[in-house]
Design a protein that fits this description.
It is built from 12 helices and 12 strands. It is of the alpha/beta class and 271 residues long. The chain has 2 domains: 72 residues, Outer Surface Protein A, domain 3; 193 residues, TIM Barrel, CATH 3.20.20. The protein has a 6-stranded parallel sheet, with helices on one face. The longest helix is centred in the last third of the chain and has 14 residues.
Amino acid sequence: MDAKYFKNSYCREIVHGNYTLIIAHDSGTYINLRSSIWNNIQYYMENNIKIDKKYEDIIRVLLEYGIIYQTCKGNLVYKSIMLQLTSACNLHCIHCCAQMISSKGIVTMEIINKVINLNPQLLILTGGEPMMHPQFWSIAKYIRKHFRNELRLMTNATLITEKNIGDLCSYFDSVDISMDGKNNEDTSRIRGGGVYEHAINAIHLLKKYDKKVTVSAVVECFTEDFANQFDELAFSLGVDTILRELDIVDEVMKNFDDIVVGGKNIILRIK
């Protein structure tokens, strides 16, 4: 049976002239394609038509970036799944949209087992703050025992300590730390005081265990040269970076002037 392709539901498209910028919000990856090519590929996918061979190289890139997924022999191949353990969080970030887009309550073992059985190439535990789940450690241990692919933790790092770093690194292959700042001043403005120091300390602890670490930031919160400065910080720490797009929801709009340095014009230039 030929492979079937589906668009990642977390993708957003921005059309500019003859090109479409396609952003995968779950991974932070993006690709810029001619709109005519992207429209043709979508037509093939939506109508279950075998995709023209001339698009093979593009399809490979779209799969690699998580823009599209494929099924083979009737089984859906998941590149990544984000599992929200809890909506609870110990921070009050001014750019947070969790109240608008997150599930309420905490995840159940029934859901966890269903996700494990889907066998994604990458499973990301997120929140809220996932480490706030009352059974976080037992869940992490259970998933690690029954799941053999990459397991990643997405966290604000404030609950990572020298006492628990050993267990954390025994369960997770990689950790994504939300910093939203290239220094203490930036991070404190968005996430609150003390968060930057916690993040830096957590990075040093994780690097001692040779763990893959990524630091992430919402790009619209800063001036246009922020990306380069954030990359420089990450390079000095020996970690990778992900730049994410700001979700403009009602709660975010209440703090818009405090969140976006440069106002609406900076968002237009970034896009």
